[in-house]
Amino acid sequence: MSQIIKKTKNQLNTLYDQDFYEWIQTTVQNIRNQDLKSLHWENLVVELENLGNQQKHQLENRLIVLFKNLLKLNEEYDFDF
């Protein structure tokens, strides 16, 4: 991993728009160092919400596929549920 140089909130906001990967690396390093004053909270909240929504949608999609397969299996073998 490249060396993370401490950045101001404005620099982090610009970094978020220009180099998302480096923004993530810098944010993770700030959290590990418990440097909460250096975090750009607005972007961090947005990314955490997006991650949560993505995980929820993946679970919903997988459950839909599972239920469809169970229905097909039921039709094929005529199980009594």
Question: How would the global form be characterised?
Answer: rod-shaped
Q: Unreliable stretches, pLDDT < 50, 5 or more residues?
A: none
From the alpha carbons, calculate the radius of gyration and give it in angstroms.
21 Å
Mean pLDDT across residues: 88
Describe this structure in words.
With 81 residues, the chain is an all-alpha fold. The protein is 74% helix and 0% strand. The protein contains three helices and no strands. The protein has helices spanning 9-18, 20-32, 41-77. The model has no long low-confidence stretch (mean pLDDT 88).
Give a summary of the structure in a few sentences.
With 81 residues, the protein is mainly alpha-helical.
Distinctive features:
single chain; 81 residues; mainly alpha; 3 helices; 74% helix; rod-shaped
Task: Chart the SSEs and their pairings.
Elements: H1 9-18, H2 20-32, H3 41-77
Helix pairs in contact: 1-2
